[in-house]
Amino acid sequence: MQVSVETTSGLERLMTISVPAERIDQDVTKRIQQTARTVKIDGFRPGKVPVKVVKQRYGKGIREEVLGQVVQESFYQALQQEEINPAGTPSIDFKKDVEGENLEYTAKFEVYPSIELADFSSVEIEKKSAEVTDADLDQMIETLRKQQADWVEVEREAKLEDRVRIDFEGFVDGEAFDGGKGEGMDLVLGSNTMIPGFEAGLVGAKAGDEVEVKVTFPESYQAENLQGKDAVFKVKVASVSEQVLAELNEEFFSKFGLEDKTEEAFRVEVGKNMARELKQALKMKLKDQVFSKLLELNAIDVPSALVDGEIDNLRRQAVMQFAGPDSDMDPSALPKEMFTDQADRRVKIGLLMQEVIKVNELEADEARVRETLEEMAETYQDPQQVIDWYMGNEEMLGQIKGLVLEEQVVDQLLAAAKVADVTVSYEDAIKPEQPAAPEAE
């Protein structure tokens, strides 16, 4: 077998493979003989069909099967011979396929990039820490009470955080416009649901009032024909309601599945949940910061096959999240461009992580795996049952080990970096990071 490899561009390789005719002819002959012993053809007794007849009738199909197997085996042998690690499935193109002559085909594929990790000692990392204070706990409990709140109609002027029920119609230059009309709409003032100025214009209105609200559509408004336009909304207020927070009583506590239906037990449980959320948020922000620095230091090309595979994963996740597991929506219907940047980042981080793992000979720490399992399980009614289920499921346990190994990579990189400890508030700690503003040209 003869093999030659050409670098066509970047990570793409073109491998040309020539397989001796004897190897193919021998396999085809052997397969035809086997078929002759088992095939049933009218006019011949079982096992007595002449090889010539079998070849005439089935030879083409048998040769195609043999070629498929030969290509698979020879490609694998060629990769080993040339010490090449392909990324993704090759594209096969037959250059010469004539019975009795050597088979020649090309395989086009991508390879994994060669990575030499940059020194991480110059990197500066902010390691944030925070605590759940009594004020944070009080704020969270109030938020939970608001989620279970009732709305009660009042006979007074509307103020911020009240809910108004309205009928409205919008006009630009005295003409009504499409999409500018609504009836029986409930609107919480201050929720910023409507365009700027609309909700503020209803503060002070009472049930039965008819109000004209003047606004200006934002320049970035989705309807191009309304961008930057002045408009007048004629609004009729049907009712004004104020929010009455849920009382901290047994009925309220029961909604959160507490056995001990007391305010003290409720505060303890909410505090535990907040602490878990805080720990996870701080861990994720630190990890994202470390991986961003890792990407900045190590510019690498990535195989498009891996990026395409990750895009498919993200598409499926999006369908699961927004359409549900039982949806018949085709994930491929989602535009590829929606996920390209995220997929490219994930693949790059994955390849760089693998290099860190290889260079430092890291393995998932069993004690940390167990600790991670216990932390996950403590939110369930029977934690030990959850732990046992994971321990008995190799695939799911592998996912936990992957998470732990990822944390060990972060630790490895932090050990080499310049780390500054920074204390922040609980609110700042759990708040999503804002994307960096683009630099001015």
Automatic annotation (TrEMBL):
Per UniProt, subcellular location reads as: Cytoplasm
Q: What class of enzyme is it?
A: isomerase
- GO terms, molecular function: peptidyl-prolyl cis-trans isomerase activity
EC number(s) per entry: 5.2.1.8
What this protein catalyses is: [protein]-peptidylproline (omega=180) = [protein]-peptidylproline (omega=0)
Q: Which residues form the PPIase FKBP-type domain?
A: 161-243
Pfam families cross-referenced by the UniProt entry = FKBP_C, Trigger_C, Trigger_N
Protein's UniProt keywords contain Isomerase: yes
Keyword Transferase in the entry? The reply is no
Which key words are in the record? Cell cycle, Cell division, Chaperone, Cytoplasm, Isomerase, Rotamase
InterPro entries this protein is in?
PPIase_dom_sf (IPR046357), PPIase_FKBP_dom (IPR001179), Trig_fac (IPR005215), Trigger_fac_C (IPR008880), Trigger_fac_C_sf (IPR037041), Trigger_fac_ribosome-bd_bac (IPR008881), Trigger_fac_ribosome-bd_sf (IPR036611), Trigger_fact/SurA_dom_sf (IPR027304)
Q: Which family is it part of?
A: Belongs to the FKBP-type PPIase family. Tig subfamily.
What this chain does, per the entry, is described as: Involved in protein export. Acts as a chaperone by maintaining the newly synthesized protein in an open conformation. Functions as a peptidyl-prolyl cis-trans isomerase.
HAMAP family reported for this sequence: Trigger_factor_Tig (MF_00303)
| Domain note | Consists of 3 domains; the N-terminus binds the ribosome, the middle domain has PPIase activity, while the C-terminus has intrinsic chaperone activity on its own.
Its name, as the record gives it, is Trigger factor
| Species | Neptuniibacter pectenicola
| Gene that encodes the chain | tig
